[in-house]
Amino acid sequence: MAKILGNRALGENFYLLTAEQENSARRGQFYMLRAWEHYPVLSRPISVFDADGGTVSFLYKVVGKGTELFSTLKEGQEITLDGPHGNGFPALPDKRRIALVGGGVGIAPLYLAARTYKEENPACTVDLYLGFSGQPVLTREFEAVADGTTVNVGGFVTDDIDPCAYDAILACGPTPMMRALYRKCTKSGAKAPLYVSLENRMACGIGACLVCTCKTDLGRKKVCKDGPVFLGSEVFGDE
Amino acid sequence: MSERLKTTFAGIPFKNPVVLASGTCGFGRELDEYFDIGRLGGICSKGLLSHPHGGNEGIRVWETPSGVLNSVGLENPGVDAFIRDDLDWVNAKGTVNIVNLGGHSLQDYLEGAEKLNGAKLDILELNISCPNVKSGGMNFGTKTEVAREIVRAVRAVCRHKMTVKLSPNAEDIVSLARMCEEEGADGVCLVNTFLGMAIDIQKKAPVFQNVYAGLSGPAIKPIALRMVHQVAKAVHIPVMGLGGISTWQDAVEFIMAGAAVVQVGTATFMKPDVSMDIIDGMERYLEENGYGNVEEIRGIL
User: Fold this and answer.
1) Residue B206 resides in a domain
2) CA 20 to 30 Å from A80, out of A161, B155, B176, B283?
């Protein structure tokens, strides 16, 4: 069990929960979160927003029973954090211009991604494109870890980006958003590889139950174990 | 682990009566990172078909009150790949190795059973109860006389100990179990998932592409327990009981209802090592109540 250090309401049903647990979490990975015994049955897969060796934080949005229960947790209470799981976003040592594109709660993994890409290669440029349907959250925090931050409210964040201006593009958000971005990249002839982090419904979160598998050009893969990050061409290539 | 939990099922020794249920534990590798799966009484493989299969499209899981609907549709690498990649690994773990075999046709079942004849395993669990395949699976398992053909034909081919996994959607689960006994099954396993449904009221459409899906989890436990009780009273072959078992108390209930061995499925999603808690809890219960062995409480009701 991990002790909760904070669970802050950010507006628009977004919350930022920080807990104390030794970890080796990397950008783009997730944990299975649970703060109850038997009901709801399933734990909730939530992306890592930020992590250092001793704490890990999660940006989540209340969308159902599980996240609603998370939102009631108070500092000092405990939560089960099982993880980190998944492959996470790749190392990009030779990419000079990196774009991170997020829609809705899909912005969550982009904070640690931006922060660590900059730390690993201070010479690279990291631009964030954040799409919100309502009031934006944590924009100051995101701005602090990126070179440029473009915030889109109520429109299509994919309209804001010129894929040809980047050497690598990483995205997380609703599948239609990521598919639209993949098409835009292909149409514009962008050289940058596009990585997408999928949000399929999960049950076990560890690769045992096969409810989250997705079609790829190399057959079906487990989003929780082989992903959640795939090349856009792997999952959207044959559409 | 003491002698208290040791039992036998169809002549096969189990170090304890707790088995991981098919479809909730892969082939054991992922859970082995949480605990030594060698501590389990047994492990039952993800449902295999003779040939690789991609399973169902669309949403595959939907949470319900105290339950989970799933529609995986037997995604699996095929019997050959399992034998090549995973079988030896499971056998080396020293737990009873149960291989679940499904099929879309009688031919499928027979091919799969023949391929598995050459493989080292402890029990073949014949799955005539998967609700998530359009042809085969549960369609074979709801009518006793249709199921009889499959059980008889596979029994004639299969050289392993063979149990039959029964569907709670059967017309008459007691007659289905009796038929399995008549046809030479070494045991029966029940219950698989209940056929259920969910509707997305915004899209005004079924959640699942197959419309119906299989319900598991604590929600089904009382019905599963009743069915295990009825079947255990009606047959002389041993019963593996499952359906919503999430605590050691649940497991004790199933044993008292007549199950020789229990399987833990959906609860593994709540806590990956819940099966270890169940083993420890049963052991404590037996000790505190003065039982020397788990078989002393089997079928006492």
Assistant:
1) no
2) B283
Q: Is the pLDDT of residue A14 over 80?
A: yes
Residues in chain B with CB shorter than 8 Å from the CB of A209 are 23-24, 26, 61, 70, 72, 269
Residue B31: give its domain's CATH number. Answer: 3.20.20.70
CA angle B197, B202, B204 (to 5 degrees): 55
Domain count, chain B: 1
The three-state secondary structure class of A169 is strand
Q: Reply yes or no on whether B130 is catalytic.
A: yes
* B7 in a structural domain: yes
The whole model's pTM is what? 0.95
| Full set of structural domains in chain A with CATH | 2-85 (2.40.30.10), 93-187 (3.40.50.80), 198-239 (2.10.240.10)
Mean pLDDT over the full length of chain A: 96
Measured in angstroms, the CA of B183 and the nearest CA of chain A are apart by 32
Nearest one of A233, A206, A234, A237 to A222, comparing CA atoms: A206
Quickly tell me which residue has 């039992």 as its tokens: B7
* Alpha-carbon gap: B7 to the closest alpha carbon of chain A (Å): 27
**A26-41 per-position pLDDT tens digit:** 999 999 999 999 999 9
How far apart (Å, rounded) are the C-alpha atoms in residues B285 and B150? Answer: 40
Q: At CA B48, angle to CA B47 and CA B51, rounded to 5?
A: 150
> Which positions in chain A touch B70 (Cβ < 8 Å)?
203, 209, 211
State whether B63 and A40 contact (CB < 8 Å).
yes
